[in-house]
Amino acid sequence: MTLTALSFALAALAVALAWPVPILLDRARWPSRAPALTLLLWQAIALAGGLSMIGSLVVFGLAPFGDSLPSAIATAVTGAFTWTWQDGFTVFHAAALVFGALLFAHLTLSLIVTTTRTVRGVRRHRELLELLSNPAPGDETTRIVDDESPFAYCLPGMTDSVTVLSDGLIRQLTPTQLRAVVEHERAHLQQRHNIVLTLFAAWAIALPWFPVATRARRSVELLIEMLADDMARRTVPARDVAEAIKHIAVGSSTGGSHAAAIGAPAADDDADESDTGRPLPAELRIRRLLAPPEPLPIAGRFGLVAVSVLLVGVPTVAML
Amino acid sequence: MGELERRIMDLLWDAGRPLTAAELRDSLDTDGTETPAITTVLTVLSRLERKDFVRRDRKRRPHLYEPARSRAEHMAELMHDVLRHSPEQEAVLARFVRSAGPKEAELLRNLLNDEPAP
Known about the structure:
The complex is a heterodimer of chains A (320) and B (118). The model of chain A is unreliable at 255-275 (pLDDT under 50). Chain A is an alpha+beta fold and 320 residues long. Chain A has one domain (2-262, 279-319). Helices cover 70% and strands 6% of the residues of chain A. In chain A, a hairpin with a 2-residue loop joins β1 (133-136) and β2. Chain B has 118 residues and is mainly alpha-helical. Chain B has a single domain (1-118), classed as Winged helix-like DNA-binding domain superfamily/Winged helix DNA-binding domain (Arc Repressor Mutant, subunit A, Orthogonal Bundle). Helix content of chain B is 54%, strand content 10%. The N and C termini of chain B lie far apart (44 Å). In chain B, 29% of the residues are buried. β3 (152-155) of chain A pairs antiparallel with β4 of chain B, so a sheet runs across the interface.
């Protein structure tokens, strides 16, 4: 029965993509040499992972109905309408179908909920920002918040994305370092990193019991920062980008007036992370800026694209 | 429009007592920029009310407006968004870099061969 074999193959792929592959990729050192392509690979892994997880369950459940998925679906649908029982269709097959449908609904719902929540959060934050910040002189897309602690972030919008800087940051950084920060944030906005972040946030929230989902998300966050650092480095010396990272990471840990007022812990980022031996993203970014690694050779780059395409393409074609 | 919202909120926060739309319009008049029409002020006020920034007292004529919460409370909410590290929040704002703990701060300084901060 070929569909049963296919379902086991898909299940094997799902397990590989849910456990060893993300752990290896998260630990690998070469992704910092090709952050954009690694980001592509992570998205392929997430997509192929979801596809093979749901696919293996559905294919297994439909295996008694035929030798290929389209014909099995047709037979199953006809059988359901004519109330004919398929030989070999057991409670296991039914359970697989139900579980596959639930998993699909769970993942879809999580994506919808996370997206809605993010969009709402951005809107609320923007409303607050409009009342509590001033536009930077001569730059409508940059707003300045009156706070001592140095921070910077960007807020995505359909047409009206803004970069937000704090007063403290502007006072502490040199003009060149400040430009590094603005260029970095602009890269996030231009490359629509918020969409990738939302997708991986949804995945991490949907599958909290999979340590890999959180790992994937952490890796993706770092890759995105590296991409934005690279964009900043095009117009500003790498050293200034690195200095800006250090200033903000160190400066905001001492906390400004508001940070102290609401009792934010200095660094709660790593409290929930099991492997504390892992270097801080800021450290990795600074090291990378001070000693930029060789870009991945062309063969490696081609390989990354090919693997990404195959990961999604092969399971899709196999099921058709 | 955002600019006018901000000026009106600043006036309400600074006033210390509920104001009418006409009073707000007159205060906007004195700061040297162009004066908006009273209907514009009312439109902005109802937008601010919809966003929960302003409370309207409808029992009095003309209606009185006051801030729903203080400027400091709103600032705290804004900073909470910026500093909070909840999974949901990460996708909202892409911060330049997260804050480092004291030990990490030391390491980052050494990476760039700096003097320790005073």
